Amino acid sequence: MRIFHILRFFLLVITVVVLIRGLTLHRWGWHGWRVFGSGYGGLMSLINLSSLSLLPPRGLLANVLRAFGS
Predict the structure, then answer these.
(1) How many angstroms separate the CA atoms of 7 and 54, rounded?
(2) pLDDT tens, residue by residue, 17-29
């Protein structure tokens, strides 16, 4: 059951990040997208990390933040 909670959390995170990046892309164009984060590479890293549900949640969160350059 804990895996479902983790997956639901990552689906929420992915949705929020995609919405934020979509808004920044719409407002500032491609340059805004590049400044805001690492573009598609960061998103793909997040998807790859979220599929590794065996890692502890704290480690996953740290890796996700690192993937987006925060």
Answers:
(1) 11
(2) 776 666 555 555 5
